[in-house]
Design a protein that fits this description.
Blueprint (H helix, E strand, L loop, with lengths): L2 H15 L12 E6 L4 E5 L12 H10 L6 E7 L8 H10 L4 E5 L6 E5 H4 L12
The structure holds tetrahydrodeoxyuridine.
The site of tetrahydrodeoxyuridine has 13 residues, from helix 2.
Length: about 130
């Protein structure tokens, strides 16, 4: 992903964050996932009165993409206060499709950016090959 593509992806994640439905936590998250085809899919967190049914922004973007035929991803931008890394569940779900995904974590307030690979965040992942015994 070149610098221009990275800017585009970050802007998409920031825009998606505006749609976050987070009345319980008050913590808004936006994401933008770039498929190897070039297409970008965005997501935001969608909370629920039954708290455990909340869906993270990353999994919204991923499931949108997979449901439209994409299975190979290059990069993911995540935009939230403090530029946090994705939760463990999202790491696992992203790993299913693109273990080598590049992540850029962005704080919408001060603009802080952190870059990290999914493989660093989720070493020794459980995966399809783990089932082949
Ligand atoms: N959240 C995400 O959307 N992505 C993450 O990786 C971590 C947490 C959301 C879930 C919930 O709506 C809020 O942030 C607080 O946990």
């Amino acid at each position: 992903m070149n610098a221009e593509e990275e800017e585009t992806l970050i802007k998409a994640a920031q825009a998606a964050r505006e749609y976050a439905y987070a009345p319980y936590s008050g913590f808004s998250v936006g994401s933008a996932l770039q498929a190897r085809s070039g297409r970008i899919f965005t997501g935001c967190n969608v909370e629920n009165a039954s708290y455990g049914l909340t869906i993270c922004a990353e999994r919204v973007a991923l499931t949108k993409a997979v449901s439209e035929g994409e299975r190979d991803f290059a990069a993911l931008a995540i935009c939230a206060a403090g530029a946090p890394a994705p939760c463990g569940a999202c790491r696992q779900v992203l790993h299913e499709f693109s273990p080598d995904l590049s992540l850029v974590l962005v704080d919408p307030g001060d603009g802080t950016r952190k870059k990290v690979d999914l493989s660093t965040l989720l070493p020794w992942a459980f995966e399809r090959a783990s089932l082949d015994l």
